Amino acid sequence: MNEKLVCAQCAASYPVSVVRYECDCGGLLAVEREPITAGPAIFDERRASRRGIDASGVWRFREGVLFIGNDLPVSHPEGDTRLYERFGVFFKHEGENPTGSFKDRGMTVAVTQAVRLGARAVACASTGNTSASLAAYAAQANLKSVVFIPAGKISAGKLGQTLAYGATCLEVRGDFDSAMRLVREASTSLGIYLVNSINPFRIEGQKTIVWELLQDLRWKAPDWIVIPAGNLGNTGAFGKALREAHAAGWIAKMPRLAAIQAAGANPFYQSYRQQFASRFRVAAETIATAIRIGDPVSHDRAIAAIRLTNGVVEQVTDDEILAAKREIDGAGIGCEPASATTWAGVKKLRAAGVMRENETTVCVLTGHILKDAEAAVRSASGRTIAIEPTLAAVEKALG
Ligand code: F0G
Questions:
Q1: Do 278 and 178 form a contact (C-beta atoms < 8 A)?
Q2: Is 146 in the pocket of ligand 1 (CB under 6 A)?
Q3: DSSP per residue over 319-360, as a string?
Q4: Rg (CA), the chain
Q5: Is 337 touching ligand 1 by the criterion CB < 6 Å?
Q6: Which are the contacts of 193, defined by CB distance < 8 A and separation ≥ 6?
Q7: pLDDT string in tens for the chain (399-residue length)
Q8: ω into 77 cis (within 30 of 0)
Q9: Which atom of ligand 1 is nearest to 127's Cα?
Q10: Alpha carbon of 230 to ligand 1 centroid (Å)
Q11: Does ligand 1 have an atom closer than 6 angstroms to the CB of 338?
């Protein structure tokens, strides 16, 4: 299979068997391999059979994910999420993964690799979804998990989930970006395996969101793929997925990526507005706590993805996010606030004439509605009416 870790900046390479996230030159590393010869026919056959690891929407694509020989992956299994058609767009609902977010796709690969490397503990910084996913996969693999979270800034559901799966939570007095800096330092000095999206194996798993949505569309590439953009791991992963799918001939044309940021956490949008001439860092604030990130680690990878796909970056306000969430929830699908940036972004880009209604567009819903129950209640179109336990009170309330 001949997999290597290759630096995106200087092309230096390292074996996949070493613990390394960055090149000596400081560039992020990516797993690169010989051209993938497996393709749609075999992937479709595995999806229909659903036996063993073929039931995983990640490991079904294993030739392009990670060569593990006869080892068994740490899998729940994940992926195989639904595609809904509403409002003239498709929604790929990654909130239907085992822990309720797309993070499980990358985590199955990163934790499988952690076990292969002999790690005893795994760590991440998180706004809540990565930590929940990490804790679940670490529990399954009997690894200790340590998560660094910004104190008071992740939803109660995500925190509860992370703790319930058995992680040790370090509540950092600071924002996500300071937690991220700290976990990078701590994992190196304490010898703990880091599974944030700077980990190249996470990216390999997250590529399968794109591959599976192409499979859902019978390998006919859409015009647009729309994603929320926070730490930018997914944006980078989507670019790599599309590059590899196109190079392998699975799709005939390259879809365009639209990465959507919250206006209060928009460093990548600001950089895009300057043709990526400079990198921005902001003090982030948004209701979409999952993407409350001011200094995204995968900045360079994300630029490559936007350039490769002739993509765009847009920003949406918290009010636009909540309005879009109300529509997605009201359609009976539901998602957490960060995911609603996608539909809010489509509406804005259509109004600006960048996207057209006759184009095939796939919005990736990254997290489940229950991930942030407080936000769901706040933006809900349904209402609660307190009543006495009498029929008269029911009639009065509904009348
Ligand atoms: N949507 C959700 C629901 C997320 O949890 C995240 C990131 C994103 C979108 C953005 O993805 O970082 O790859 O650009 N959540 C991370 C976490 C930061 O810790 O759970 P990205």
A1: no
A2: no
A3: HHHHHHHHHHHHTT----HHHHHHHHHHHHHHHTTSS-TTS-
A4: 21
A5: no
A6: 19, 114, 117, 119, 121, 122, 123, 187
A7: 689 999 999 999 999 999 999 999 999 999 999 999 999 999 999 999 989 999 999 999 999 999 999 999 999 999 999 999 999 999 999 999 999 999 999 999 999 999 999 999 999 999 999 999 999 999 999 999 999 999 999 999 999 999 999 999 999 999 999 999 999 999 999 999 999 999 999 999 999 999 999 999 999 999 999 999 999 999 999 999 999 999 999 999 999 999 999 999 999 999 999 999 999 999 999 999 999 999 999 999 999 999 999 999 999 999 999 999 999 999 999 999 999 999 999 999 999 999 999 999 999 999 999 999 999 988 888 999 999 999 999 999 998
A8: yes
A9: 19
A10: 6
A11: yes
Class of domain 36-100+199-399: alpha beta
Centre of ligand 1 from the C-alpha of residue 288, in Å: 10
Burial class (CB in 10 A: 0-12, 13-18, 19+), 127: buried
Which residue carries 């002999």 as its tokens?
118
Give me the residue spans of the domains in the chain.
1-34, 36-100+199-399
Q: What distance in angstroms lies between residue 236's CA and the mean position of ligand 1's atoms?
A: 12
User: Measured from the CB, is residue 367 less than 6 Å from ligand 1?
Assistant: yes
Phi, psi of 125 (to 5 degrees): -100, 150
Residue with tokens 């039931």: 55
